[in-house]
Structure formats: structure tokens, C-alpha cells
Amino acid sequence: MKLVCPSYIAKRKDSLAFKLFSYMTAIVISILLVQALAEQALVKAMLKVPNSVKMEMLDLAHQANVLIEHGDMDELADWANAQQFYLFVLNEQLQPVTHRLMHPHFEFKLQFKRSIDDQLEDKVNRPIISIPLVQQHNLVIQLPHRLHPANDFILYFSIIKVVIAAVFLALFSLLMARNLQQPLDRLREASKKLSNGDFNVSVVQELKSNTREFNELAQDFDHMTKEIHSLAEKQRLLIRDVSHELRTPLARQNLVLHLLRKRVGESEQEL
């Protein structure tokens, strides 16, 4: 099916307003698209458990494995209480292997636990990280707010959004200025030629613009050039005619004066 451009758009697509609107639309869409791509790339790069925290959690998992293999649950409970993280060692039924009490909200969040390599959310929260242990046990650790990578993600992404917007605005501004400046430069060159007396200049042919307003301005300029040329020709003819009309009486007066001088000279000789 062939798409047909609406008539009211087809009539205005070569106007300056339509082109400026198209430029602005392209700028906004480009900025939003690139920002979305940058956000996805930044999410994949940043929203993971930080490497230092990851290594610390894996070390805790190793310690938990050693305690589980020794079978000392009291020592395991004391070890869990001594850590800076809020953590539990769970059995395969997701129940604590020690008698340490679990907060109800933490127990509710166990259904949303994630692997240590999973991607985190872009909002600061306290996700539950699950690490498999020996004997089908799991170490679940709550990541504190202060260690969540989203703390830095918000700042970095804000900076990237500003940079992307500034770069695209600069590029599109240069393109827009160039497209608008070229017809104006040609019009300026044509006006210089006209001021130097070159009435053969044709702005319409030199302009070669796709913008209706510039073409209309070029046509008006060419019309003005023709009018000025016509007025200059009329002025030249008027000056020539006036000069001719002035020369004829002057020639007659010169002839009369010459004859008078000649007659006066003859009279003086007779005397």
C-alpha cells in the first residue's frame, strides 16, 4: 500500500517553519533514543553487585561452607550475628538452619532473591543476594543501601543525559545554521554584485534553495533588480535627452556670439 502525504502537509513541507519543526522533532527523538541506549548500556555496566562487595560475599560463603561442614550450628549462628551484613544460612526449604530469628519483611523478600551476578534495579533498595553453599544450603545476604550501585548510577546517568543533549543540540544547531546561512550568503553576494552595477545577477538561479521563503525572497530580489535596472536605463535616457536639449540652445548662442564678434571686428576695421 502506497502512503500518501496529506495535502496540507505537502503544501507546507518546503516552508521554513515546517523544516524548523522537523529539525526540532529529529533533535528530540535522537536525544531520547540515544539516552535510552546509553541507559541500557549503563545499566548493564553498573547495576551489578560491586566487585569489592562481591568478593566479600563470596568470602563469607566460603566461611559458611567451612562451618556447615563442621556441623556446629551455634558457631554458625554466632558467625552470622558478627557480620556487617544482615544474612542467613538457609536449607533447601528456605528455612534458617540456626535458631536466629528472621525479620518478617526479610522472609517476605526471599521470594525475590537473586543471584550474585544478576542485574540490580536502577532504584536504591536492599535486594537479597543468594549464594549456593554445600549440602544444598544457601547463603542469603541483604545488600545495604549504601553499597547499592544505583547511588552512583543516578549521578552518572544524569551527567550522560546532559552530555548527550548538549552534543546533539550542538550538531543539529551547526547543521541548521549551515542550511540557513548558505542562502543568506548567496543573497549577500548577489547584493554586492548589484551594488557594483551588475544587473545580470539572478538570485533564483544562484540560490538553489528548497525553502519556499528563501525562493520567494530571491524572486523579490530579482524583481527589484529588474526594476532598478529599468529605472537606471530611464535615468540614463533622461540625462541623454536633457543633455541633447541643452546642447542645442547653447550651440545656437555660441553661433550668434561668434557672428556678433565677427561683425564687431569688421566694423572696427572700417573705422
Short description:
This protein is an alpha+beta fold and 271 residues long. The protein contains eight helices and four strands; from the N terminus they run H-H-H-H-E-H-E-E-E-H-H-H.
With helices defined by DSSP (H or I, 4 residues minimum), what is the helix count? 8
Q: Structural class of the helix and strand makeup?
A: alpha+beta
Strand content: 5-15%
For the biggest β-sheet, the strand order reads: 1-4-3-2
Give the termini separation.
116 Å
Question: Could you characterize what this model shows?
Answer:
The N and C termini lie far apart (116 Å). The chain contains 8 helices and 4 strands, in the order ααααβαβββααα. With 271 residues, it is an alpha+beta fold. Helix 2 packs antiparallel against helix 6 (150-195). The longest helix is centred in the C-terminal third of the chain and has 59 residues, at 212-270. Strand 3 (128-132) and strand 4 (138-142) form a beta hairpin. Strands 1-4-3-2 form a 4-stranded mixed beta sheet, covered by helices on one side. The model has no long low-confidence stretch (mean pLDDT 80).
